Amino acid sequence: MSETVINTQELGEKIVQVLKTIYDPEIPVDIYELGLIYDVFVNEERDVKILMTLTSPNCPVAETLPVEVEEKVKSLDAVKDAMVEITFDPPWTQELMSEEAKLELGML
After folding, report:
1. 101 and 35 in contact (C-beta within 8 Å)?
2. Residue 4 has pLDDT above 60, yes or no
3. Which pTM was predicted?
């Protein structure tokens, strides 16, 4: 009996789709387009680690947003476990936003 090979790239893309459903409550743009997600790691065991930041260390959702990200990613059937790590290095700036986010916010 052979084990099913997990396509980590495919799973990564599914995770990004989930991340695009999570919004910063103060800005009407999803956290992925805002540039708050620095990296998504997926290993062969289907454990996911997400390295993300917040718009500021005093962000009102500093307690709840990482939990929401973790829970939504864990809800994917293919994900065994998910962990979110918050970093402020490098600090978030508006340059990290996608063109789509800048357009949405009238910055282009």
Report:
1. yes
2. no
3. 0.89
